[in-house]
Amino acid sequence: MVNPVHPNAPEDDPERPEEVTGKLESEKSETPEPGIYESRRGRSSKSDPDDESESGKKPKKKKMSFWKELPILIVVALVLVFLIQQFLARVYVIPSGSMEQTLHGCPTCQGDRILVEKVTYYFTDPAPGDVVVFKGPGPWVQNEFDSPRSDNAFVRFLEQLGSVIGLAPPDEKDFVKRVIATGGQTVRGDVDGKVYVNDKPLNEPYVYWEGDAPNGEQAFEPITVPPGALWVMGDNRNNSSDSRRQGGGGLNGVVPVSDVIGKAQVIVLPPGRWGGISDPNPQAMALAPAWQQGIPLGAGVLLAWPVLWTSRRVGSAVTRSFKGSDRK
């Protein structure tokens, strides 16, 4: 029995078996082997650092714990405080009453804490009226006694740290006074307590007399201040050891400009004493002749007339405008 032949049988197309065989082989070659596919998939599933950097994602870093950061923060803060105190500003304690009543201070009470800035004197010299803090020159400190310090090293460290941030008196012998005269000027004191610079009386609204009024003890002979030096005095005139007395007085009492640390600007503590420190120039405020003192009064009278005339004209114009609107 003969079976029917399919129209597309290989017998009718002798080249077909080779074509089918080629297609099968090409399909096999295009199908990846299981091992190769899995290895490629494994590599693609892993994170590539370059791909992450390109996509903007970075691996997360563990945050440092607070207790590990604390010592670093303390060290950085202390370094910043030290740099600020050395070059910009520093807080000082007023230990005595020599600057009453501008600055309060006494050995047994809570003295003012003042902010002394150093930047001003990088560009200019101290001027009359400035309240300055300075290192005591040799004649000023030769009879000074060292303040007692603890034998405990840790306590000494705390004292030094307190002096740096203004919570304790500094180790060095520093003073705070007001500049009265500068280099080249001649200063003298009269028996009535009046101070003269280049024979001109000073106007000193900041002066305070503790207890008795001037009794002649405040008088001192004329002194010409050397160039590069200052004549300084306390506001509490009869209770201040200043240029009049330090080193025996005279030229021994002057303070070199190079010893000035900075200018006292603000009272920072206690809170009830917050405020700026006045620094009027006593030489610029010296009393002028009588005819010059009358100039401001005369100028005020002359200027008052135009102002009064203008105000009347404006007032009358406004009144007329209101009356005109009412009639309408």
Question: Which of globular, elongated, flat, extended, rod-shaped describes the shape?
Answer: flat
Number of helices: 9
Q: Using the 3D structure, state the CATH architecture of the domain at 90-276.
A: Ribbon
Order of helices and strands: HHHHEEHEHHEEEEEEEEEHH
CATH homology group of the domain at 90-276: Umud Fragment, subunit A
The average pLDDT score comes to 75
* N-to-C CA distance: 135 Å
CATH topology name of the domain at 90-276, in short, is: Umud Fragment, subunit A
Which secondary-structure class do the elements indicate?
Answer: alpha+beta
Q: Major sheet: size, sense and barrel closure? A: 8 strands, antiparallel
Helix residue percentage? 25-40%
Uncertain spans = 1-7, 36-46
Describe this structure in words.
This protein is of the alpha+beta class and 328 residues long. Helix content is 34%, strand content 17%. The chain contains nine helices and twelve strands. The strands form two sheets. Strands 1, 2, 3, 4, 9, 10, 11 and 12 form an eight-stranded antiparallel sheet that branches. Strand 5 and strand 6 form a beta hairpin. Mean pLDDT is 75; it is low at 1-7 and 36-46.
